[in-house]
Amino acid sequence: MTEMHIVAKHLTKSFGTFQATKDVSFEIEKGKLIGLLGPSGGGKTTILRMLAGLEEPDSGDILFHDRKVNQLPPQERGIGFVFQNYALFRHMSVFDNIAFGLTVQKRSKQQIKERVNELIELTGLLGLEKRLPHQLSGGQRQRVAFARAIAPEPQLLLLDEPFAAIDAKVRKELRTWLKDMIDRVGITTIFVTHDQEEAVEVADQIMIINEGRLEQQGTPIEIYKRPQTPFVATFIGESNQIGDISYLKGFDATALPQAKAIIRPEFIEIGSVGEIPFPSAAEKGTVKNVFFRGTNWQVEVDVKGDRLFAYRSLELPALAPGDSVSVLIHRLYLFNESEHAMQENS
Ligand code: ATP
C-alpha cells in the first residue's frame, strides 16, 4: 500500500470577503514531486502557506502522516522552503548558509561539517564553499537555497516559483536538476509555478488551481488526456471550443445535453479530396489561414461558422486560404455544468 504523507481536507481561506481557497482537498504520497499550477492570483501560494503554517485555514484540516498539524507552528512542522526571492544570508559563505538550519538544531560541529559537505557535493557546489552569495550565479544561488532547505532533513519541501527569476536556459537545466535531486533525496516536494511546461516536465503529479479551487489532480499525462473541467482542457495544451456539436457527424450531442465541446488541434485531420481516409465521416470546411510553425503547418479552417485550428504535416501538399477541405474530427471532450465525457468519432 502506498503511504499517504500529506492530506488536506476541505481547506478554506478568506482574506476579508475574498475567498482565496475554496474547499480544497488532496492527498500526496510520500516522496512525490508535486506541481501546483495555475494562473496568477488563483490561490497557489495561499495553499503553500497553509501547509507551511504561515497562514491558518478558516476551516478544514491538514494532516502530515495522519497527524493533524493545524495548530502546529511553522518551525515544528519539519518543512524546508525555497522562495523565488528568498535571499540567502548575504554576509554568510555558501558553507554557513547551508549550515544555518543545522546550527539552529544545535547539532555538533562535526555533524554540521559532515552534513554540509555531503550537501555541497550532492548539489554540485564543490569549490564554492567560501564564496558569498553575490559571488555566485543565479542558478548557483538557487542550488545553495535548495541545499540550505534540505540540510535539516525536512519531511516536506515547499518551493514557490523557485526558478522564476532565472533566465530561460539555466531555468531548464535547473528544473531537470531539481527532479534528479528530489528523486535522490526522496523528500515530498510541492512547487508552485504558473509555467505549464515546467510543471509537465518536472512533476510526478500536477494540481491545477484556479480561482481558489483545485480543478484537477493527476499525472501530467492524465491531466492532458483526461481533463475533467473546461478550464483544465484549455489551460493545458492547445484547444478549440465549439458551443453546439449537434451538426457534427460521428458524435452524440444528446449524450451530454447542453455541453460545450473542446477539441485539441491534434484530434483534427484536414485534407484535400482523397487525403482523408473516411471522407463520409468528415465535415466540409474552408481554409481561412495557414501558419508555418517550424515543425508543421497550423491551419485555421471554417466549418459551418466555427473556426477550428488543426495541424498539418509539412510532408503533405501545402494548403492555402480559400481551399475547400475535408475536416475529420477524431475525438472531443464534452463538458456541461456537472459532467464531462470524451467521445470518439464513430
Ligand atoms: P501568483 O501566481 O500571482 O503568486 P497565486 O496563485 O499564488 O498567485 P495567491 O498568492 O495565493 O495566488 O493569492 C490568491 C488571492 O488571494 C489573490 O487574489 C491575492 O491578492 C489574495 N491574497 C493573498 N494573500 C492575501 C493577504 N494576506 N491579504 C489579502 N489578500 C490576499
Automatic annotation (TrEMBL):
Record domain ABC transporter: where: 6-236
Domain of life: Bacteria
Entry-linked InterPro entries: AAA+_ATPase, ABC_SmlMolc_Importer, ABC_transporter-like_ATP-bd, ABC_transporter-like_CS, Sulph_transpt1, Transp-assoc_OB_typ2
RNA-binding in keyword set: no
Keyword flag Transcription regulation: no
Keywords associated with the record: ATP-binding, Nucleotide-binding, Sulfate transport, Translocase, Transport
SMART domains for the chain: AAA
Signal peptide coordinates: none
Molecular functions per Gene Ontology: ATP binding
Name of this chain's protein: Sulfate/thiosulfate import ATP-binding protein CysA
Organism the protein comes from: Paenibacillus allorhizosphaerae
Annotated gene: cysA
